[in-house]
């Protein structure tokens, strides 16, 4: 009973924080996706004495991808970007944050933009836990989806839907979550976020690893 109460309080807090960020930061949010990634990757790679090819090989991506990222041409999945961060010995927050914010828990970085203006993912905050916890806001326009690559074993996601209806499609099943509902699942599998409703979908995503 006490555990259930703590979970309920947690999601109430998440909803409160999310509403603040959606209303307060939406106007000031930069329109440039992952605008600091290129500078950060190049700087971290130079510090560690890695060539573009060496970094690419260790992260499991092509050298062309690294070169494109370093010149500001962002076209990469969040999972692959996290793999690059791991090779460079930093967390996801560090690789996407502005240099002056690398030590801050609050990040507020636009990390993904869909084909439609209403579809986007923003990393709000990231704090150390046993390893790391990330707090995200996501929105998807009607009919839009996001295909996520499998995370490493042990990673989990906690999702709370604020507005609309979210369908999460797994390899052999799917789950539909309505506004005001939540879901917890292991994210070490391929899955897809789908806006299955008839309005803009807004939800909170917590990544625990």
Automatic annotation (TrEMBL):
Residues that span the membrane, as ranges: 7-27
Pfam families: Cupin_2, HTH_3
HTH cro/C1-type domain segment(s): 41-95
Keywords carried by this UniProt record: DNA-binding, Membrane, Transcription, Transcription regulation, Transmembrane, Transmembrane helix
Record organism: Acinetobacter nosocomialis
Single GO term (MF): DNA binding
UniProt-recorded name of the protein: XRE family transcriptional regulator
Highest taxon listed in the record's lineage: Bacteria
Gene3D superfamilies the UniProt entry points to: Jelly Rolls, lambda repressor-like DNA-binding domains
CDD domains to which the protein is assigned, alphabetical: cupin_XRE_C, HTH_XRE
PROSITE patterns on file: HTH_CROC1
GO cellular component: cytosol
């Amino acid at each position: 009973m006490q555990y259930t109460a703590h979970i309920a309080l947690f999601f109430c807090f998440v909803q409160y924080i999310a509403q603040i960020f959606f209303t307060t930061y939406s106007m000031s949010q930069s329109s440039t996706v992952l605008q600091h990634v290129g500078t950060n990757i190049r700087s971290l790679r130079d510090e560690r004495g890695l060539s573009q090819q060496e970094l690419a090989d260790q992260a499991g991506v092509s050298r062309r991808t690294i070169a494109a990222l370093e010149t500001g041409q962002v076209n990469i999945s969040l999972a692959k970007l996290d793999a690059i961060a791991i090779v460079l010995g930093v967390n996801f927050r560090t690789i996407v944050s502005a240099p002056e914010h690398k030590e801050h828990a609050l990040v507020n970085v636009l990390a993904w933009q869909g084909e439609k203006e209403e579809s986007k993912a923003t990393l709000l905050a990231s704090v150390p836990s046993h390893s790391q916890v990330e707090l995200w806001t996501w929105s998807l326009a009607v009919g839009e989806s996001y295909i996520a690559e499998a995370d490493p074993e042990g990673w989990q996601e906690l999702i709370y839907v604020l507005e609309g209806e979210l369908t999460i499609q797994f390899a052999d099943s799917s789950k539909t979550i309505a506004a005001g509902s939540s879901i917890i699942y292991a994210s070490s599998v391929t899955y897809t976020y789908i806006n299955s409703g008839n309005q803009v979908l807004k939800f909170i995503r917590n990544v625990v690893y």
